[in-house]
Amino acid sequence: MSADVVARLERKLPGRVVTDPEALEPLRRDRSGAVAPGRPLAVVFAESVGDVQAVCRTANETGTPLVTRGAGSGLAGGAIAGDGELVLSTERMTRILEISIPNQLAVVEPGLFNGDLNRQLAAHGLWWPPDPASKEFSTVGGNIAMNAGGLLCAKYGVTRESVLALKVVLADGSLLEVGHRTVKGVTGYDLCALMIGSEGTLGVIVEATLKVRPAVTGTVPTIGAYFDSIPDAAAASAAVTAAGLRPAIMELLDTYMLQTVGDYHGIDLISAGAAYLLIQTDGPGALDEAERILAEVTRVGGRAELTTDPETAASLVDVRRSGFIALEATGRAMLVEDVAVPRDRMPDMYARIAEISAKYGVDIPAPSHAGDGNLHPSFLFDGSSSEVPEYVWQAAEELFTAALELGGTLSGEHGIGTLKRRFLGAELGAEQYELQRRIKQVFDPKGILNPGKVFAA
Amino acid sequence: MSADVVARLERKLPGRVVTDPEALEPLRRDRSGAVAPGRPLAVVFAESVGDVQAVCRTANETGTPLVTRGAGSGLAGGAIAGDGELVLSTERMTRILEISIPNQLAVVEPGLFNGDLNRQLAAHGLWWPPDPASKEFSTVGGNIAMNAGGLLCAKYGVTRESVLALKVVLADGSLLEVGHRTVKGVTGYDLCALMIGSEGTLGVIVEATLKVRPAVTGTVPTIGAYFDSIPDAAAASAAVTAAGLRPAIMELLDTYMLQTVGDYHGIDLISAGAAYLLIQTDGPGALDEAERILAEVTRVGGRAELTTDPETAASLVDVRRSGFIALEATGRAMLVEDVAVPRDRMPDMYARIAEISAKYGVDIPAPSHAGDGNLHPSFLFDGSSSEVPEYVWQAAEELFTAALELGGTLSGEHGIGTLKRRFLGAELGAEQYELQRRIKQVFDPKGILNPGKVFAA
User: Fold this and answer.
1) Å from B245 to nearest chain A CA?
2) What angle do CA A423, A151, A322 make, to 5 degrees?
3) Torsion sign across C-alpha atoms A144, A150, A152, A154
4) CA distance A36 to B54
5) Any B CB within 8 A of A331 CB
């Protein structure tokens, strides 16, 4: 049967089906460390909407599980593929079909990298705001499938706010057009928003109409502020928001992160303080806003400086952007989590992380998008990231419980994938969990689209 | 059976059930002119989530159609109730449960007026951006149920972008919590976005966590610009957007509207030009942006002036805000439509409206939110707004077709309700129409929630 599926696809889509074990091996993984059991049957490199429809039809007719995959940059095991599964790669669908300046939109294929899109847009004075740390190696389709976040969300919103319309191929191969090319549109249910963040379980995104905006120009003032403690820094970021100030970027590095990033770059960051806030403002009035933020940060005990020099600013931003790489470079295995809490609960969340770290004897550096309350507690352990020890999972579960108790969520921007599916029910409750599964069945009655992701298989 | 339902509700919810015909009569109507056939059984004035649950359970058990209603300000017949139907009024659920400055959110009950909320928020330096023309007599719950738009959407987004989370009572009386209290959250499908704009067909919104932002302060420069023709004005608004400028408000009044508003206020607006653009900028850099807009508008032929005097500005805005009232004051019957098109197709859309007006011999003034491409072509005729003549419907259908041909939609912000349900399939296509109905069934298996609205009964 499996051989038959592959043979059928090879006949239908010559030159686009690969079964070479070496090519399939990396598809078992993403950047989370998760590894799917076994190896997928084949990967199909779709080149057109028609190709995607053919793959879906074949998978649906034969009941073959289908995993859609962009660049494999996910952090929740959402696009990993194993035994008996077929991979649909959007890697060759990278065209920009339209850039419209008067309509402030771009129409693109899903496999295009976020960074590549934004370089093209910049040439037209435009910008697509979603800004995940992975932007140079993650695709627009993947960003949409996960409702990607990033550093700029408090001011510029999450991916959902930057997508106008989608073309989606359903499990049965039919093509669905959802959303609107217009700014406004209220005809029936918002299936476009429903698709965003659905992690490949409802359909395959084959084309996206993106809401773009004028590129932000002018000075980008940057503030670096050191604090005596992590709660102080978290309280300072909450104070900035409470003062009605809207920084583009507001990132928090805790003590462990400062040490790790410092080690990676060979610089001393730790002697200045136990925690660090990186803040940028942009747009008209940026300097004035930065000066007000500086005053606020100083008022609550920060030792802060403000720079408008682009090079100094870039290096300060890079400290934050390289945080994950610096952690990876330690060589330790890692489980990266992604809780979000209401912004005024940031100090409490850091306190809970410290408790959990002590209780389980595990290092948990937690860089955070402090501007929007999204923390990435990263559990470090010895061994392989693909085999998370049970005590780390227990610590993680305690972390999720703490986030929920503080009015938060267990995933701000990475999604559920395989890594967090066993905890999803705790957040949604049994009734909503079941309701969501029934919605899945409406789109994918045979359950062939990314089974075992988000929901338990 | 019907009498039994009412008796059961009266027992369960003493003092909250009204069956007086005079109280029921207005519930057959909204502001669109649509009138439901017959008269509803009763109206229940819910005072709590528990009340709403009780009403839903009773309606579901007895198979009684249930129409949720805020203030009845709708323009699509979405909350009108007739024979055999029960009305669930949110009129008494008007509390503000929480305003959080550090989290930039407000938690409110659904029956609160938008204007009342914003006055409360203003006292804390905050603001909820959804800004429908009806804001003084429409509820937050209604705004969410319709995904309301308004004048500020190009810059500040539609209602969907300003809602974080909802509590919703489902048809069976169960309470569902969707969305997140946090800025980011990607746990499962975005049922919060699915609820927004679902027009009372998926559940009853009983509590909303709103995303608020710092109130916009500082000078609000206002530009008034006259043009020799409607296409010239439409082209000017497209040019402003294409130049990367982001006015808060950009409204277009056509010749008929200028005449009508002028008559209403007893002033001469028409001698200055055949069309008018009203533009406001706000926030940091507002004056600089307004000056660049002024240059752009002048460059494409506008006779424009810029004012920073608040009183002059307010009167200019009021000209636009009173447009609908001025049309009503003519005493003519009216069918108000709500198409939206990509912004660069505004001149084409106005040309098509002129053609349709000539072909059917019907006056169609079309004030528009030019900044986001949303037009309100208003078909004037003699008779009663509740009995739209067939030739007007034919003209409207031609208008919808034109909007779809231009890449637009048949409703930008008013929704489908009863008035446009016969045209919804033309926009969605048969397959998506059926898919949307199946989603409705997941939430409301017995089909008791607002039946006959959005979809044909």
Assistant:
1) 8
2) 95
3) positive
4) 47
5) no
- Asked if the model's pLDDT at residue B319 lies above 90, the reply is no
pLDDT bucket at B167, cuts 50 / 70 / 90: very high
The confidence score (pLDDT) of residue B3 equals 73
The token pair at A149 is: 């976040």
Model pLDDT, residue A246: 95
CA-closest candidate to residue B209, choices B96, B115, B118, B119 = B96
Residues 137-176 of A with CB under 8 A from B: 146-147, 149, 153-154, 157-158, 160-161, 174, 176
Residue-range domains of chain B with CATH: 2-89 (3.30.43.10), 96-214 (3.30.465.10), 218-325 (3.30.70.2190)
- How many C-beta atoms lie closer than 10 Å to residue B19's C-beta? 15
CB contact under 8 A, A153 and B184: yes
Angstroms from A409 CA to nearest CA on chain B: 6
Strand order of the β-sheet with A303-307 is A303-307, A222-227, A275-280, A249-253, A368-369, A374-375
What pLDDT is attached to residue B317?
Answer: 82
Buried b (16+ CB within 10 A) or exposed e, A178-213: bbbbbbbbbbbbbbbbbbbbbbbbbbbbbbbbbbbb
In chain A, what percentage of residues exceed pLDDT 90? 93
Residues in a beta bridge with A249: A280
Residue A454 CA to its chain's centroid (Å): 15
| Pair B316, B250: CB distance under 8 Å | no
Cα distances from A94 to residues A13, A68, A69, A107, B276, in angstroms, run 18, 15, 13, 11, 43
CA distance B212 to B248: 17
pLDDT value for A318: 79
Q: What is the mean pLDDT of residues B60-85?
A: 97
- B74, B147 in Cβ contact below 8 A? no
Report the alpha-carbon distance of residue B119 to residue B127 in Å, rounded.
9
Q: Nearest Cβ partner of B185 from A283, A409, A424?
A: A409
Is A62 within 8 Å of A1 (Cβ atoms)? yes
- pLDDT band of B78, cuts 50, 70, 90: very high
Determine the length of chain B: 457
Mean pLDDT of B51-66: 98
Q: How wide is the angle at C-alpha B269 spanned by C-alphas B268 and B274, nearest 5°?
A: 135
User: What pLDDT digit, counting tens, does each position of A29-85 carry?
Assistant: 999 989 999 999 999 999 999 999 999 999 999 999 999 999 999 999 999 999 999
Nearest chain A residue to B288 by CA distance is A284
Chain A residue closest in CA terms to B100? A242
The answer to whether the CB atoms of B342 and A182 lie below 8 A apart is yes
Taking CA atoms, A395 is separated from A77, A218, A237, A364, in Å, by 19, 45, 26, 10
User: What is the spatial distance between Cα B243 and Cα B148, in angstroms, rounded to a whole number?
Assistant: 27
Pick from A331, A344, A352, A357: which is nearest to A256 by CA?
A357
Contact (CB, 8 A) for A158 and A173? no
| CA B240 – CA B153 distance, rounded (Å) | 15
Residue A246 near residue A155, CB atoms below 8 Å: yes
Write down the pLDDT at residue A176. 98
Q: How many CB atoms lie within 10 A of CB B149?
A: 28
- Residues of chain A found within 8 Å of residue B105, distances taken between Cβ atoms: 342
Q: What is the model's pLDDT at position A453?
A: 98
Q: How confident is the model at residue B356 (pLDDT cuts 50, 70, 90)?
A: very high
**pLDDT score recorded for residue A317:** 82
Which pair of tokens denotes residue B342? 């990509």
| Averaged pLDDT, B99-118 | 98
Tell me, what's the pLDDT at B346? Answer: 95
Contact across the interface for A183 and B246, Cβ inside 8 Å: no
Q: How far is B133 from B141, CA to CA, in rounded Å?
A: 16
